[in-house]
Amino acid sequence: MPALKRAGLLVAAIAAAVGLGLVAPAHAAPETVVHQDARTAEAVAEAMALAEQVAERQQTLVALNRRAAARDRELIGHREVLATYGYHGDPDAVRAVLPLASYDLSAGFGLTGPLWEAEHGGQDFSAYAGEPLVAVADGVVTEVAYAGPYGLRTILTLPDGTEVWYCHQTDATVVVGQEVALTDVIGSVGSTGNSTGPHLHLEVRPAAGSPVDPMEWLRDRGLEP
């Protein structure tokens, strides 16, 4: 506490003590003077201790306000990132985001035709080559490799065992065993493997089993691809 404030408190405490009759008059007996001086000193000490407590509480409040302001700024930034990838709800309740910020939907789940040996097992997101791909949820990278018609494929395994396949990538920025958080960049759009142009082929396989419609999986998590 600054010296001037301390001095001011001391003067105020002494003035209060005088007002209470704690400071002895000049004609008081020596024993009375000693007794009243002790009471005055005690009052001053109590006043100083209270002032110190108030100052500490004020400093704590200032620190808490600064942390709250920083948290608000961080939350605003987090909201903006989530919105970029299609999520507009409560940031604390987010379960998944879209894999791309900019895309056009193309071939959907379950289609058949000459482009596929069997039913189309995922959802295609057409985008420019090199467009960043992000983790749709928290998970662990369990594969980064060329996989025949899938081209360069990254598999992200979520905590519940669901596998998310990112296929036809130009490159990958993660390695097997790496833990990634939702919206972390994992690679980029490409046209490797059996592909007629740059796009992401996204597959969702619960419990590492058969694929399900990625669009329904994303919608169940509050997204509108």
CATH class of the largest domain: Mainly Beta
Helix content: 25-40%
Question: What's the CATH architecture name of the largest domain?
Answer: Distorted Sandwich
Average pLDDT, rounded to a whole number, is 82
Largest beta sheet, briefly?
7 strands, antiparallel
- Provide a count of the helices: 3
User: So what's the overall shape?
Assistant: rod-shaped
List segments where confidence is low: pLDDT < 50 over at least 5 consecutive residues: 13-25
Domain module tally: 2
End-to-end CA span: 58 Å
* CATH superfamily descriptor of the largest domain: Glucose Permease (Domain IIA)
Order of helices and strands: HHEEEEEEEEEEH
Radius of gyration: 34 Å
| Side-by-side strand order of the widest sheet | 1-2-10-6-5-4-8
Strand content: 15-25%
The assigned structural class equals: alpha+beta
The total beta strand count reads 10
Give an overview of the whole structure.
There is one protein chain. The model is unreliable at 13-25 (pLDDT under 50). This protein has 3 helices and 10 strands. It is rod-shaped. It has 2 domains: 3-84, no CATH class; 104-219, Glucose Permease (Domain IIA), CATH 2.70.70.10. With 225 residues, the chain is of the alpha+beta class.
What is the fold's blueprint, element by element?
Blueprint: H1 3-19, H2 30-84, E1 104-105, E2 123-126, E3 132-134, E4 139-146, E5 152-157, E6 163-169, E7 171-172, E8 179-180, E9 185-188, E10 199-205, H3 214-219
Antiparallel strand pairs: 1-2, 2-10, 3-9, 4-5, 4-8, 5-6, 6-10, 7-9
Note the main attributes of this structure.
Glucose Permease (Domain IIA); 7-stranded antiparallel beta sheet; 3-stranded antiparallel beta sheet; 225 residues; 10 strands; 35% helix; rod-shaped; 2 domains; alpha+beta; 3 helices
